[in-house]
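User: Teach me something about this protein's shape.
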Amino acid sequence: MVNLEEFFSKLLFARQLKIHEGYMEIYGTPYVFFPAESFSILIDSVINVAGKKGKIEIYKEGIRVGKSIATTLKRNLNAKGDALLDVIIHIGGMGGWGEWEFYKKDDIKKEVIVHAKNIATAQYAYRIKKRKEPSCHMLRGIIAGEMREIWEIDDIEAIETQCISQGYPYCEFIFKKKDKFDKKNKIVKNQLEL
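Assistant: First, the predicted structure itself:
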């Protein structure tokens, strides 16, 4: 399990976490903290206005963010593969994106199932109104973008099969190559542009 206090201390000691006037920086990248409530409301507003197209756009932006995070960490740490993934997991946990556990990870097939607990935005969404469908579109995009960079392949996509916002104990994400998803599956059709 990830020990965030220890990781945070290591970042401080290595001078890779800096507090500036007005923002925080991790490995040379400025970060913005955003209350989970406000973030969840913003995502809901986009989806309410744009529907499925909004979900897809949020997901695509997540991919861009995830690739950017992974690229920056890869460059600054000279880390690849599981070493890069480990740092990403720690930083994600510090940012409120939950505790991630990777199951059935197959680096050859480029497939993995991720279970994520304690996601601040999903927990908030559930407290406000239990959702009928998964709601972590940004996070599935972020992890997809990170996995694209880790595996060095650009056709990795992700779906969320269950979500804390629906009342489940964790969110489940499935990542694999785009052509490996069943295009007739209801969740796939609702979450991906295939």
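Now, about its shape. The CA atoms of residues 131 and 166 lie 5 Å apart. The first helix runs from residue 4 to 13. If you'd like, I can walk through any region in more detail.
User: That's plenty for now, thanks!
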